[in-house]
Design a protein that fits this description.
This protein is α+β, with helices and mostly antiparallel strands. It contains one helix and five strands; from the N terminus they run βββαββ.
Length: about 70
């Protein structure tokens, strides 16, 4: 049983009617808000900076890398 992350973009509508776009990180599954000053590329740079960008899913053997 491996980890399966959703692909692409997910949108969420807030209680006051605003739509927020979320991008799913294929490395860790985090939902990253698409907004000024933050995006999925910034999040993946964080993986590279912290060294947390490469790991192997023990269930599938798939290498996740930044």
């Amino acid at each position: 049983m491996g980890v399966v992350f959703p692909e692409g973009t997910v949108s969420v509508t807030t209680a006051n009617g605003d739509t927020v776009l979320l991008r799913i990180c294929d490395l860790c599954g985090a939902a990253v808000v698409e907004a000024d000053g933050t995006d999925l590329a910034f999040h993946k740079r964080w993986h590279r900076t912290t060294g947390s960008g490469n790991w192997v899913d023990p269930g599938t053997g798939r290498l996740h890398r930044s």
